[in-house]
Queue: 3 jobs
Job 1
Amino acid sequence: MIVDFHSHDFPDALAARAIAGMCRKTEGFLYPAGDGTLENHLDSMRLAGIDKAVLCQISTRPEHHAPLLRRARAIMDGEFGERARRMIIPFCSAHPADPDVAGHLREIRAAGVKGIKVHPYYQGFSLADPAVFPMFRAAADLGLVVTTHAGFDVGYPARRDACGPREIAILLRNVPGLKFVASHLGGCAGYAPHSTDELLELGCWIDTSALHRDWHKDEQIRLLRSWPSDRILFGTDFPWTDGREAVRWVSSIREKEDLDALFSKNAERLLG
C-alpha cells in the first residue's frame, strides 16, 4: 500500500486557472504533471500504484474556510464518487487572520477531517511569530495533524524567513505535542547542511516531496537516507511531480526494509 501525504487538486472550474497562475508566478520553473483536477489526480494515483492521498487545501484568505470544508465533506460523503471517497483524505486549512480560527478548527475536527495544511508564504505569516502559537495550540488540543510548506519556495525566491528549519523549531518548542509535518524533507533546500536535524529531536515528521532534487542534492539524499524510518512520510506534491517518478526516487535511496513504513505505515499511524 502507498499513501501520498502531500498532494493537491482543485475544483474543476478553478483548476486550469490555478495551475496557470502557479506557472506564471514561478516563471515557468514549475511544470505540471497533471491538469489539477480531482479526476486527473485519481487517474495519476492509479497509474503510480498510490492507494490513498492526503489532499492539502490552503486557505489564502480567511473566508476560504467554508468552501474548503464543504469540499472536504463532499469528498468524504461520496459526492465526487466512490473512487474519490475511498482514495482521497482531505485536509482543510487555517488562516491566522481568521477572527474565529479556533471555532473553525473545531468545525474541521467535528467534520471528521484529520488535519490542516498551512503555507506561511501564501498566507503571510511566520511560524516563529508568537501571534500564531494559539492557532497551532488549538490544533494540537484537537488532535489535528498540521502539515506545512517548509523551506524555500520558488514563488518567493528572496524569502527564507517564514518556514525554514529555524522557524519550525521555534514553533515546536512553543507548542509541544503538535502533530507536525514539515514538507519538502523538512525544508532543507536553501539552508545550511544539517539545519533540519534539530527538528527530529522536537518530534517533527518530514515528507519526501522534493521538487528540486538537483538543489542541495547531497543534503536531501542524506536526510532521506539517515532520518529514522518512522519519521518520514511519502509525498509527491502532485500535480507538480508525477507519482511514478516520486515512488522510484524514494525507492532508489531508502533501504527496501524501510519502505513499508515510509509508503504507508507511518501515515496510518499518524492519521489513526
Note: The chain has a mean pLDDT of 93.
Job 2
Amino acid sequence: MKFQQLKNIHHQDSKQFFLISGPCVVESEQMCMDIAGKVLEICDEYKIPYIFKASYRKANRTRVDSYTGIGDQLGLDILKKISTHYNIPVTTDIHTEEEALLAAQFVDILQIPAFLCRQTTLLVAAASTQKVVNVKKGQFASPEAMKHAVDKIQSTGNDHTWLTDRGTCFGYQDLIVDYRAIPAMQAFHVPVIMDCTHSLQQPNQSSGVTGGRPDLIPTIASAAIAVGADGLFIETHPDPKNAKSDGANMLPLDKLKSLIERLVKIREAII
C-alpha cells in the first residue's frame, strides 16, 4: 500500500494518481498556507491524494549568495502547521544524517535529493526514522541502479520507499526523460513518481541561476500518467518570476487546475 504510513492523506482509496506539490522552498508562512489551501481544494475536487512539499532548507544551490531558507526551525514549524491545519501529509528535502533526525519530527515523508541518492549513510539515517523515504533518481543514475537505494532503505526494516524520476543528464545544460524508467523502477514494488518540474531544468547556466521550460510541464505530466506513474511531483508558486528558488521551472499556481483536469481524464482513460 502506498499510504499505509500516512494516516492523514485524503482520498487514499481513489484510483487517481497522487500529487506532491508546493513551492520549492518555504518563503513565508502565509504563502505556504495559501498554496497548500488552493492545491488541496483542487485535489479534493478530483479526489486526488495530496502531499504538500516545500524545502525548509535549500542546500544544493549554484551560487553562494542564493536563497537557502528562512531558518531551519521556523521553516519546519511552518511545515508542521500546514500539516495540522489542513490535516495533510507534508514532505521536505534533507541532506545530512542530522537533518533526517530533525526533520522527521515535523514531516511525514523525507525526500532525498537526486545528487544524494547514493549516499548510504543518509539513506540509512532517513530510513531509520521509519518515515516514508522518497528518493529522487540521480540525473547520472540508471533506473535499474535505484534498486540499491531501495535495498539500503529496506535493510533497516523500513518498507516505506518511494522513487522519483527527474530526468537524465543530456550534455551540460539539459535533461531528458526516458519513460521506460517508470515501469523499470515499479518492478522494485515501490510507488514511482514523475518530477514534472525539475526534469525540465536547464542547469549549469553561466549566470549561476538555473533555467527551465515550465511550458512543457503538461507534456511531461501527461506522458507520465499515460505510462502509469503512481504519482506526480509539481512545484507551484503564485508568482514564479519572483520566487526565491527554482522560479524558472515552477508551474504558475493559476494553471494547476486546468492541468489536473487534463491529467484526470488521461488517468480515467487508462484504468
Note: The radius of gyration is 17 Å.
Job 3
Amino acid sequence: MRSNRRLRWVAIPVAVAISIALAGCTQEELRGFLPGTPGITNHTDRIVGLWTTSWIVLLAVGVLTWGLILWAAIVYRRRKGQTGLPVQMRYNLPVEIFYTIVPLILVLGFFAFTARDQAEIETPNPNPDVNIEVIGKRWAWDFNYIDANVYSAGVQAQDRAKLKDGETISDTLPTLYLPVNKKVDIKIESRDVAHSFWVVDFLYKKDMIPGKTNHMYFIPEKIGTYAGKCAELCGEYHSLMLFQVKVVSQADYDAYIAAQRAAGYEGQLGLEYDPNQNLPGTTGATEGSEG
C-alpha cells in the first residue's frame, strides 16, 4: 500500500506537468522544430507526422525509463541501520521478456512507418506536368527545363562572393522556378563530385552521385521562395553553394520560361564539362595519353 501511494504522488505531478507542457506548445514545437510551414509540398506534412510521432513515442519511452530508474533508486535505497548488500536476484523472466519484446515492437513499428512513408515519397508521379534536370557543379547549380527546352546556368560561388554595390547574395543565387500545384519530376545529376540537393523547407534531400541519376517527385502546394543548399561537403566553397526555389503561379512560370527563351537561354546544359572524364581509365584519358 505504501509503495502504491508513493507511485500515485509521483505520477500525478508528472501527468500534470506533461499536460501543461503540451497545452502550451507553439506551432513550431508541434512540428518538432522542423523548418517551414504546413502544406509546402504534398510530402511535408507526412514527413512532419513521422518525425513528431517518433519523438513522442521515444519521449514516452524515456519518461518511463527515467521514472523506473528514479523509482528503484528511491524505493530500494539503503535505509538507516541497514548493512551489507540487498538480496541478489539472478534473473526475472517477466522483466526480461518485457525489455526484449517492447524494444523489438518499437523497432519494427519505426521501420514499418518509415518504409511506408518513404515508399510514398519515392513513388514517381505518373505523367508529370514539369520535368526538370538539376546539375550540381563546384560550386553552383544548373537548371534544365526539359519540357520547354530552356536552361538557367548558375554563377560559381566564388564569383558570387564578390558582390557589387547594392547587390545581395539572393540577387546572384541560382534560382529554380516551379509552378504551384503541378506534378514535378526532378532529375538529379552531378558534373564532378558528390553533392546533395536540399530544399530546406521541403524537408527532403537527395544525393547527387557522379555517374548516377537520382530523382525527386513532389507537388509544390504553396507559393513562396524557399532556400536551398548543398548538403554534402564538396570542397572549398561548399558553404556558398546555395540556391533558391521560387514556387509561382502557372502564368508567372510561363512568363519566366518565355523570358529565358528571349534572352537566348534555349537548349539544354549537359555533363560535357565533367572533369571525371579525364580520370585514368576513361576514354578521354586514354586518347590523351596516346596523343
Note: The first strand starts at residue 130 and ends at 137.
